[in-house]
Specification:
The chain has about 400 residues and is of the alpha+beta class. Among the domains are: about 1-35, no CATH class; about 105-170, no CATH class; about 180-250, 2-Layer Sandwich (GMP Synthetase, Chain A, domain 3), CATH 3.30.300; about 330-375, SH3 type barrels, CATH 2.30.30. Helix content is about 25%, strand content about 20%. A five-stranded antiparallel sheet has the order 2-1-4-3-5, with no helix packed on it. Strands 12-11-10-9-13 form a five-stranded antiparallel sheet, with no helix packed on it. Strands 6-7-8 form a three-stranded mixed sheet, with helices on both faces. The termini are far apart. About 15% of the residues are buried.
Length: about 400
């Protein structure tokens, strides 16, 4: 029965040319022409003999070269659509332009200098035009004061101004000038009274200066003393005489020189009294690095402390000597080994004491090779230590 059914299927397939869509399995097994496919695995180990009679059901053909299709083949008259633009993840956005810096904010100020120092203080001009050398009445933390204009109206950056900026009350009038002169006379009259009250209370205080505020609301006494002084009773005695607010301020010897002024060893006015706004720390090490004599009379000023000008060039010496061999350094020279006894980056000459004959020879920086440093005990006399600020 099965053989008859298979025979009928084969006849139907041959008649329909293998195009029977309802029999897909038959199409696959028998092909479109009804010929049955024979699936055999090739035997690669057995050579094929062409002279051997082929099997009736097997067709052996030479392998044909296969062409790899690299480009798509299109029919005649077909034009492919352009590929849309791709945006990859590494397509960064263009860098934003750097923001234009805002203009520096400026503020109009006028510079005022008072009689007790060379520091210039900024004040708001309050829509008043000032010229250098004029006088003005201003409001300060100590009260109303009379000062000299050292810097006329000027625009400066806000970073240079300490806020809140006090205003200028007015230009000094003729009455203000007369009142300022009268205050100077009153200050001179206050000196003997101060001395009388100090002796009465048994205090060791040296009067430096006396100053009235412009409106006579406060009287300030500047003094020096060796240590702290209890002057509470003194203040009461002075307030009972002058009938105004009394302020006592203890200052150091540097401040005393700043108030009095004078001429330094260089023949010029004191730096602290002319242009230095504040006092900077000065040490004996600065004098050593500048190859100065460590004599107290040569490196101290009129105030009895180290001269302020030692600080002016310290940064330059410190920067240059960072790459320059210093004193007490062991070096190799073209003439032997020795120790540096004098070094100056200004002249570029280095004086070396040779180990072999203890002679002194001068070399340049490029001729020396640093070996080490001698540890020298830093002995500073007590007189020099007193010159430093505590």
């Amino acid at each position: 029965m099965e053989n008859e059914r298979n025979t009928e299927k084969q006849e139907n397939i041959k008649q329909n040319g293998g195009n029977n869509r309802n029999n897909r399995r038959g199409n696959h097994r028998y092909g479109r022409n009804g010929n049955r496919h024979h699936h055999r695995r090739p035997n690669n180990n057995k050579p094929v003999d062409k002279n051997e009679a082929p099997n009736e059901n097997v067709n052996i053909e030479e392998p044909k070269e296969q062409k790899i299709q690299t480009e798509p083949q299109f029919g005649t008259g077909f034009t492919p659509e352009p590929e849309p633009e791709r945006k990859y993840m590494f397509d960064y956005e263009p860098e934003a332009e750097a923001p234009v810096p805002e203009e520096v904010k400026t503020i109009e100020v006028v510079g005022i200098k008072f009689r007790n120092g060379g520091k210039i203080y900024y004040f708001a001009p309050n829509d008043i035009k000032f010229e250098k050398g004029e006088h003005a009445v201003v409001e300060t933390v100590r009260g109303v004061e009379y000062g000299e204009v050292s810097l006329g109206n000027k625009l400066v950056g806000e970073s240079e101004v300490v806020f809140p900026l006090k205003p200028v009350l007015r230009k000094a009038t003729k009455e203000d000038d007369e009142r300022n002169a009268e205050n100077r006379r009153l200050e001179e009259k206050a000196r003997p009274i101060w001395q009388e009250k100090v002796e009465k209370n048994g205090l060791e205080m040296q009067l430096v200066d006396v100053e009235y505020t412009h409106d006579n609301a406060k009287l300030c006494f500047y003094f020096t003393a060796d240590g702290r002084v209890d002057f509470r009773e003194l203040v009461k005695d002075l307030a009972g005489v002058f009938r105004t607010r009394i302020e006592l301020r203890q200052i150091g010897v540097r401040d005393e020189a700043k108030l009095f002024g004078g001429l330094g060893s260089c023949g010029r006015p004191f730096c602290c009294n002319t242009f230095l706004p504040d006092f900077a720390q000065v040490s004996i090490k600065m004098a050593k690095e500048q190859n100065l004599s460590l004599s107290s009379s040569k490196i101290s000023g009129a105030c009895g402390r180290l001269m302020c000008c030692l600080r002016f060039e310290h940064d330059t010496y410190e920067r240059e000597y960072a790459t320059f061999p210093k004193v007490d350094t062991i070096v190799d020279t073209p003439k032997g080994r020795g120790v540096i006894v004098e070094s100056s980056f200004l002249t570029g000459k280095i004086k070396v004491k040779m180990n072999n004959d203890q002679s002194l020879k001068i070399f340049g920086k490029g001729e020396l090779k640093v070996i080490g440093t001698i540890k020298v005990k830093d002995d500073v006399s007590e007189d020099l230590k007193k010159l430093e600020d505590k």
